[in-house]
């Protein structure tokens, strides 16, 4: 087996759930670094700006640099800038900080949707619909990601995917998905000089994290601490990932054995 040289690590549901680290995750991350494995934190989290997410992780005990976080917000902001878009944003105020300012002298030419529970109302969604509908097919619908659901301290909660699909249905437009499981997202997050088979993606989403990474040749390790619910699957119908683990700490223990 080719040794793992880099780990792309999901955040919410994998390293933490809101303000609580998953069991043993803080020490496991230190251990992974000691093994000489390069680390990059890749996340579809769109409720928080990268700076706010970094501050949250440090506050709950993780040791990392802000530059180690590669967010779908970052990728989406680059997409907006490179395409000179003037979007109508359905984002939280904090996430909005990662995007360029609007050009008030021109009309909206696109809609950008992230995880923004307080803006998933008829008022905001209807405004987005009108922009897309009235453009007669010229406006672009940009989904920062299309997650179905995510884990919170109160349990499983709706992700932005259903709202993106609703806009697709009503407008006849197809969204452009930026974050996981987009192959471009994984490739752009990989350290320079490494091949996909030298990398592993560790996350709590069978499709967006693991199968998405495996599609480009990486290994995909699934953890049971977030949205993945083992009990909902029959034994013979479990996701066809590279491995399923109790938590992030168990993944690091497995990697340690392969390197020693």
What would you note in describing this structure?
The structure is a single chain. With 260 residues, the protein is α/β, with parallel strands linked by helices. The protein has 2 domains: 6-44 and 180-259, 3-Layer(aba) Sandwich (Rossmann fold), CATH 3.40.50; 84-177, Rossmann fold. Helix content is 33%, strand content 20%. It has helices at 25-34, 50-59, 72-82, 93-96, 122-134, 161-171, 183-189, 206-214, 248-259; strands at residues 6-9, 16-17, 20-21, 38-43, 69-71, 87-90, 110-113, 140-143, 149-152, 155-158, 176-177, 199-203, 219-223, 243-245. The strands form 4 sheets. A 6-stranded parallel beta sheet has the order 5-4-1-12-13-14. A 4-stranded parallel beta sheet has the order 6-7-8-11, covered by helices on one side. A two-stranded antiparallel ribbon has the order 2-3. Helix 1 (25-34) packs parallel to helix 9 (248-259) and helix 5 (122-134) packs across helix 6 (161-171). The protein is globular, with a radius of gyration of 19 Å. The protein starts with 5 loop residues before the first strand and ends with a helix. The model has no long low-confidence stretch (mean pLDDT 93).
């Amino acid at each position: 087996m080719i040794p793992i040289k880099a780990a792309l690590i999901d955040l919410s549901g994998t390293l933490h759930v809101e303000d609580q680290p998953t069991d043993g995750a803080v020490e496991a991350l230190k251990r992974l670094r000691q093994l000489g494995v390069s680390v990059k934190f890749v996340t579809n989290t769109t409720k928080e700006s990268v700076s706010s997410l970094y501050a949250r992780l440090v506050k709950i005990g993780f040791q990392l640099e802000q530059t180690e976080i590669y967010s779908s917000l970052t990728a989406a902001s680059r997409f907006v800038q490179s395409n000179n878009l003037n979007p109508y944003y359905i984002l939280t105020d904090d996430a909005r900080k990662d995007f360029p300012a609007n050009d008030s002298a021109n009309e909206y030419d696109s809609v950008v949707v992230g995880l923004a529970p307080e803006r998933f109302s008829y008022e905001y969604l209807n405004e987005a619909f009108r922009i897309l509908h009235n453009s007669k097919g010229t406006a672009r619908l940009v989904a920062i990601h299309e997650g179905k659901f995510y884990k919170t301290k109160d349990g499983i909660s709706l992700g932005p995917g259903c709202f993106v699909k609703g806009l697709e249905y009503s407008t006849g437009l197809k969204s452009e998905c930026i974050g996981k499981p987009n192959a471009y997202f994984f490739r752009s997050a990989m350290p320079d000089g490494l091949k996909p088979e030298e990398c592993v993606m560790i996350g709590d989403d069978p499709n967006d994290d693991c199968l998405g990474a495996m599609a480009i040749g990486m290994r995909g390790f699934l953890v049971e601490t977030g949205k993945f619910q083992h009990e909902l699957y029959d034994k013979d119908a479990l996701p066809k990932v590279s491995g399923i683990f109790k938590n992030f700490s168990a993944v690091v223990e497995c990697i340690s054995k392969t390197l020693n």
